[in-house]
Design a protein that fits this description.
This protein is mostly helical and 224 residues long. It is built from four helices and no strands. Helix 1 runs antiparallel to helix 2 and helix 2 runs antiparallel to helix 3.
């Protein structure tokens, strides 16, 4: 009867240990998934938010530089070299196209895609206006640029501002998600420590129980 009781207790202990080990494996798997989530959030903050935000600055810089070049041409009292102006504008247009292409490769929410598409359309119209302005006499070019060029320029600028606001909001959202992932990882780490301590205590208890049983067995043997 005593041995039957001991076997039952060991079986219960084995079941308990198995359950704890399964729970430990579950926590480790959740922890790994949690770490991947943190890595994904921070990677997205850098690749899909920080880098595009810098690109927006460059886009804005190129857009304003193009406006300065055109307005300087229109206000100049001397006949400028149109070939040089076209070369300067072409350089900035090429860089804008390159930045837009790089921007399109990042992860974009719907509002970002809409704002970027609007900017891309407006910048195309603005390039056509620049070409027309350079083909007109300065007085006609000034009038055309004021009536057609400035509104398109302002529209392109507003599209960039909208992109900036969306980038900022999505960045804050990603930061909140990363913060929540870190908090969850902290809780899981604490649970892992607790489970490890419980598991260690059970193992020590089983070892002691085994020693006591063996001691009683030896005592009985000597008495016989």
């Amino acid at each position: 009867m005593k041995w039957s009781f001991v076997i039952q207790q060991k079986f219960k202990a084995a079941l308990l240990l198995s359950g704890i080990l399964l729970f430990l494996v579950f926590l480790i798997l959740v922890s790994g998934s949690n770490m991947r989530g943190i890595d994904k959030s921070f990677s997205s903050i850098y690749e899909d938010r920080l880098i595009p935000a810098i690109d927006i600055i460059y886009l804005s810089e190129d857009l304003y530089t193009k406006r300065i070049i055109v307005e300087k041409y229109l206000s100049s009292s001397e006949a400028p070299e149109l070939a040089d102006i076209r070369t300067q504008l072409a350089k900035h247009n090429a860089r804008i196209d390159s930045l837009i292409s790089a921007f399109e490769l990042t992860y974009l929410v719907d509002k970002e895609s809409e704002s970027l598409a609007a900017f891309k359309k407006l910048i195309g119209e603005y390039e056509q206006i620049e070409t027309t302005v350079l083909n007109l006499d300065p007085p006609e070019g000034r009038a055309f640029y004021q009536s057609e060029g400035i509104p398109v320029f302002m529209g392109a600028k507003e599209s960039l501002i909208a992109l900036t606001h969306i980038q900022s909001e999505i960045g804050r959202q990603l930061f909140r998600e990363a913060h929540a992932e870190v908090a969850q990882f902290t809780v899981i780490s604490a649970l892992l420590v607790i489970v490890a301590l419980v598991l260690g205590s059970i193992v020590i208890g089983l070892i002691r129980s085994s020693q006591i049983v063996n001691s009683k067995k030896d005592s009985s043997y000597h008495l016989n």
